[in-house]
Specification:
single chain; 220 residues; alpha/beta; five-stranded parallel beta sheet; three-stranded antiparallel beta sheet; 9 helices; 8 strands; globular; disordered C terminus; binds BIS(adenosine)-5'-pentaphosphate
Length: 220
């Protein structure tokens, strides 16, 4: 199964991608996570991406397309993958389409997780991550047992710098201007499915799985 999980910042793409990854045994490829890992280890990519990420702007297409090309060439993507947070511009969508053509791969479904701006803000500003294992929490919807401490490994929790309310509002603007038009790119393809992203994590997971069923959910 080859899935694109699309949606605004904080729609729950990462949360749902992780669940789909476990269900189907295929990797979640999150450009945001890969970039944050590169920032942490101060690689050349991380150094180039940091200023954009801190401002809530998109990292240049050329860097992202190179990163995706390398990742899709890995052995673990043969049975399928979930693209989480990519493509994010028309240029990235076209680049992906060309790359997949070269590789002889076809996307099965593009899932757009639809949420309101108010939900986006609430979810982003309440998000906390473990600084050691990257486990994700929400201070209201999925809080840790002990405030500020990861349930899984005991690491300290932190708030992403781009999850401050002013940055979140800016990321929404960037999404509307640069990323939302990508939906038009997929509209004519028959691959696009829109999921109501408001509800519990379980409810949204069920909605996605039911869309995948109609696409032949066991296909991998
Ligand atoms: P990235 O990390 O991709 O950020 P994003 O798209 O803004 O998405 P998020 O990670 O914020 O949210 P999500 O939809 O995954 O939601 P999540 O599951 O975490 O990108 C960060 C930056 O990197 C970008 O700004 C850009 O600079 C750069 N970048 C990345 N990809 C790029 C690309 N392709 N091109 C150019 N630049 C790129 O959930 C959010 C919170 O809500 C969590 O706390 C979670 O617990 C909670 N939650 C989830 N589901 C529910 C629910 N159903 N009910 C209640 N709470 C919920």
């Amino acid at each position: 199964m080859k899935i694109i999980l699309f949606g605004p910042p904080g729609a729950g793409k990462g949360t749902q991608s992780r669940r789909l990854s476990e269900t189907f045994g295929i990797p979640q490829i999150s450009t945001g996570d890969i970039l944050r890992e590169n920032v942490k280890y101060q690689t050349e990519l991380g150094k180039a991406a940091l200023a954009y990420m801190e401002k809530g702007e998109l990292v240049p297409d050329e860097l992202i397309l190179r990163l995706i090309k390398e990742r899709l060439c890995s052995e673990d993507t043969k049975a399928g993958f979930i693209l989480d947070g990519f493509p994010r511009t028309i240029n990235q969508a076209e680049g992906l389409s060309n790359l997949l053509k070269e590789m002889g791969i076809e996307i099965d479904v593009v899932i757009n997780v639809d949420v309101t701006d108010a939900v986006i803000i609430e979810r982003n500003i309440g998000r906390r991550l473990c600084s050691d294992c990257q486990m994700m929490y929400h201070i209201e919807f999925s809080p840790p047992k002990k405030e500020g401490i990861c349930n899984k490994c005991g690491g300290g929790l932190y708030q992403r710098i781009d999850d401050r309310e002013d940055k979140v509002r800016y990321r929404i603007e960037v999404y509307k201007k640069e990323t939302a038009p990508v939906l038009n790119f997929y509209k004519g393809s028959g691959l696009l499915k829109v999921i109501n992203g408001i509800g519990t994590e379980d409810e949204i997971n069920r909605r996605i799985l039911s869309e995948l069923d109609t696409k032949g959910g066991s296909k991998q």
